[in-house]
């Protein structure tokens, strides 16, 4: 917004490099967000004394803060709804009305998060060429080599020491269905991977 730009500076263009100023602003915004979020969550716990917490909505997309909820609040079990965005809030409101207000029975079991668009090898390369930064082996127009893994644990073992972040495109995407990776994974063992993922 114009007001935010007046306070901080004009928005950084995509081609401009990140500077220490940008990193400081991001760090400060994260710290303020966490202070507010944990205040709200602790107030919620005082009112409910619930052991379990389900997070959804745009704020639930802040995985850095999500990872601190158990340490910063009395909640014991945390569930981050895979539709963690504003449309996830709409989904939760609809289910709340259906079950709590209308008394309808619970029949849906969410045993996976892959409700979005399906992709195969033929769909993936054009998405990468549309703007992703990736390494193509061989000549610039060489066929893209995709690695397939039979399980999440096999993928994590194979990539756990990679020095950078990796995009993981599954058979189907998660809820939003935007042309983006199903997940972004990075090893916490290397600073470069953490920086790249952030």
Over all CA atoms, what is the radius of gyration?
Answer: 20 Å
- Tell me the strand percentage band: 5-15%
Largest sheet, spatial ordering of strands: 1-2
The pLDDT mean sits at 76
Run of helices and strands: HHEHHEHHHEEH
Number of domains: 2
What percent of residues adopt helix (DSSP H or I)?
Answer: 40-55%
The tally of beta strands, per DSSP, is: 4
Structural class determined from secondary elements: mainly alpha
The unreliable regions are: 135-139, 177-182
Anisotropy-based shape: extended
Intertermini distance: 23 Å
- In DSSP terms (H or I, runs of 4 or more residues), the helix count works out at 8
Largest sheet: 2 strands, parallel
Descriptive notes:
- By secondary structure, the chain is mainly α.
- The protein has 2 domains: 100 residues, no CATH class; 77 residues, no CATH class.
- It is built from 8 helices and 4 strands.
- The strands form 2 sheets. It has a two-stranded parallel sheet. Strands 3-4 form a two-stranded antiparallel sheet.
- The longest helix is centred in the first third of the chain and has 29 residues.
- The radius of gyration is 20 Å and the shape is extended.
How would you describe this structure in keywords?
extended, 2 domains, 8 helices, mainly alpha, 198 residues
């Amino acid at each position: 917004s114009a007001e935010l730009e007046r306070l901080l500076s004009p928005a950084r263009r995509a081609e401009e490099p990140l500077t220490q100023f940008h990193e400081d602003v991001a760090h400060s915004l994260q710290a303020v967000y966490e202070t507010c979020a944990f205040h709200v969550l602790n107030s919620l716990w005082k009112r409910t004394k619930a052991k379990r917490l389900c997070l959804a909505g745009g704020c639930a997309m802040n995985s850095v803060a999500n990872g601190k909820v158990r340490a910063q609040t009395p909640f014991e079990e945390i569930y981050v709804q895979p539709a963690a965005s504003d449309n996830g809030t709409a989904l939760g409101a609809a289910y709340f009305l259906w079950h709590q207000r209308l008394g309808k029975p619970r029949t849906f079991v969410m045993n996976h998060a892959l409700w979005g668009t399906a992709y195969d090898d033929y769909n993936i390369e054009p998405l990468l060429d549309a703007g992703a930064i990736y390494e193509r082996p061989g000549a610039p127009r060489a066929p893209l080599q995709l690695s397939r893994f039979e399980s999440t644990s096999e993928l994590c073992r194979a990539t756990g020491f990679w020095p950078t972040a990796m995009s993981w495109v599954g058979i189907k995407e998660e809820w939003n269905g935007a042309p983006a990776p199903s997940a972004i994974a990075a090893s916490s063992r290397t600073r470069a991977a953490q920086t790249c993922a952030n």
